[in-house]
Amino acid sequence: MYVHGETLRTQKHSISALDILPHQTARMCNMTFEETGGDNSSDRMETVAIALEEVLSSALPQGCITAGVYEAAKSLNADPDNVVLCLLATDDEEDVALQIHFTLIQAFCCENDINILRVSNMRRLAEILGGVKPGGEPMDLHCVLVTNPQSSLWKDPALSKVTRFCRESRCLDQWVPVINLPDR
């Protein structure tokens, strides 16, 4: 087992663990699409969209959803380690102020190793999450955070699928992949 900074000495050269790790990471991120487990892009996207719906549906009753750009920013500032997924959703790409918020949130999430997805079809997202606050006011679903429940670490197979998709997308230089939630 290699420890950060340790050196492995052989007869001909010495190799630092720092020399080995980038090669392992590069191999993991240079896999072809077939090697990452996908054989059909549309099937893969549909599978991730279904998994995302499952994650949202199971997180909602546990109180693990934070909706709204301002609320999400407060939550990210207070406890970024508790956030497992950030969703950025819009049907209006023309809103410059919203795009600026998205850019800042994306940068924060990337720096704190929080998985990010861009979600299209806000109407479907509103259906999944209820879309209305208790007073009848519509929810701001432009930014939705999924957090871990306070009781224990969340072991959800659907969340694992979404997390794996985000990790594989980053390896393919797609830092904020787009998922279309299909109408039901």
Structural commentary:
The protein is an alpha/beta fold and 184 residues long. 44% of the residues lie in helices and 16% in strands. It has 6 helices and 7 strands. The protein has a 5-stranded mixed sheet, sandwiched between helices. Strands 1-2 form a two-stranded antiparallel sheet. Helix 4 links the parallel strand 4 and strand 5. Helix 2 crosses helix 6 (157-171). The model is unreliable at 1-28 and 30-39 (pLDDT under 50). One of its GO terms (biological process) is DNA damage response. Pfam families: Ribosomal_L7Ae (PF01248).
Give a summary of the structure in a few sentences.
With 184 residues, the protein is an alpha/beta fold. Helices cover 44% and strands 16% of the residues. A five-stranded mixed β-sheet has the order 3-6-4-5-7, sandwiched between helices.
How are the SSEs placed, and which strands pair?
Elements: E1 7-9, E2 14-16, H1 17-29, H2 41-59, E3 65-67, H3 69-78, E4 83-89, H4 96-111, E5 115-120, H5 122-129, E6 143-147, H6 157-171, E7 178-180
Parallel strand pairs: 4-5, 5-7
Antiparallel strand pairs: 1-2, 3-6, 4-6
Helix pairs in contact: 2-6
